[in-house]
Amino acid sequence: MMTLPPPVLAAVLAVASALPLLGWALLARPRSTAAQVNLVRGLDLPVAAAARRGPGGLARLAGGLTPGGTVARLDRLASTAGRPPAWPVPRLVAAKLVLAAIAATLSSLVVAGNPGLLTVLMAVVVTGVSYVLPELLLYSRGQERKEAISLQLADTLDQMTIAVEAGLGFESAMARAGRNGTGALAEELVRTLQDIGVGQPRREAYLALAERTGVPDLRRFIRAVVQADAYGVSIADVLRTQAQEMRLKRRQRAEEKAMQIPVKVIFPLILCILPTLFIVLMGPAALDIIDAFSE
Fold it and tell me: Which residues of the chain carry a pLDDT beneath 50?
C-alpha cells in the first residue's frame, strides 16, 4: 500500500479545502433580480432573456435532492442577509451539493492513497465544512447586516422624528429617511414603502419589515408603531421615545464592548507578551548565573 509523505498529504488536503471555495466563487455569479425582471419585461434585450430564465437544470436537480427544511432555512438566511442578487436560494442549494461532491471526491482520493483513522476524520470534516460553507457565508453576511441596521436605527429615528415634528406624516418621514439614507436600513424602509404602495396593509408591511430583518431593536420599534396606530397615540411621541431608547442602547452596547476588552486581552498577554518579556528580562541574569556556577 502506497503511503504519501506528510508534506504531500498536507498539500493535498490544502488543495481539497481550497477547491470548494473556488467552486463557490464560480457558482456565485451575479444574476438578475426580480426588480430587473420587471424593468426589462417586454424588451428584447439579452438581460431580459437572462432574467426570464428560471433556475438551471443543476439548480432544479439540487432542489429536488435537498430537504424542504434546508431550503426554508436558506430562504430565511437569505432574507436576513437582504437577498443578495448573487446568492439566490436555488444557487445556494446547488452550491451546497456541488461543493460537498468536490470535497468528497478529493477526500476519497486522499483516503485511498493513505488510509487511516485520522485521514478519514479529516476527509469527513472537509466534506461537512464544504456542505455548510454557503450557509456560513450567508449567515455571516446576515449578522453583519443586522449589526449595521442596529447602528443606523438611532440616527434614522432622529431624522424621522424631526420630519414628523415638522409636519410630515409617518410614511412621508419614512420615505425621506429612506431616500436620504444609505445602507441596509434605508433599503428596508424603501422596500416597506413599496409593499404599502402595491396594496399591502400597513400593519402587515411593518410586521414583515421586523420579521425580514430580524433585528430586536427594530422589532420593538415596529411593535410600538403598530400599537400607536391601533390606539391613536401620537406618532411623534413614539418616535421621540424610541429614538432616545435606541441612543441609550447603542451607548450601553459600546460600554459593554469596552468592558470586554480587558478580558479578551488577558490570553494574548499571558501566552505571547509575558513569556517574551520574561525571556528578555530574566535571560541575561540566567546566563550569568549559569556561568557563575559553571566556574
Answer: 1-2, 25-54
Whole-number pLDDT of residue 46? 39
| pLDDT of 294 | 73
pLDDT of residue 266: 86
Residue that has been written with the C-alpha cell 436537480 in this structure:
61
Q: What was the pLDDT predicted at 42?
A: 43
CB 226 within 8 A of CB 219: no
Q: How many CA atoms lie within 13 A of 164 on its CB side?
A: 18
**What was the pLDDT predicted at 39?**
44
Mapping DSSP onto H, E and C, the string for the chain reads CCCCCHHHHHHHHHHHHHHHHHHHHHHCCCCCCHHHHHHCCCCCCHHHHHHHCCCCHHHHHHHHHCCHHHHHHHHHHHHHCCCCCCCCHHHHHHHHHHHHHHHHHHHHHHHHHCCCHHHHHHHHHHHHHHHHHHHHHHHHHHHHHHHHHHHHHHHHHHHHHHHHHCCCCHHHHHHHHHHHCCCHHHHHHHHHHHHHHCCCCHHHHHHHHHHHHCCHHHHHHHHHHHHHHHHCCCHHHHHHHHHHHHHHHHHHHHHHHHHHHHHHHHHHHHHHHHHHHHHHHHHHHHHHHHHHHHC
CA pair distance 138, 173, nearest whole angstrom: 32
Q: State the pTM of this model.
A: 0.66
Question: Residue 37: its pLDDT value, please?
Answer: 47
Structure-block grid coordinates of residue 38: 420587471
108: CB partners within 8 A, 6+ apart: 123
Cell matching residue 265: 486581552
C-alpha cell belonging to residue 220:
420593538
pLDDT at residue number 94: 83
The conformational region for residue 30 under phi > 0 = left, psi -120 to 50 = alpha, else beta, is: beta
Determine the Cα–Cα distance for residues 71 and 88; give it in Å rounded to an integer: 11
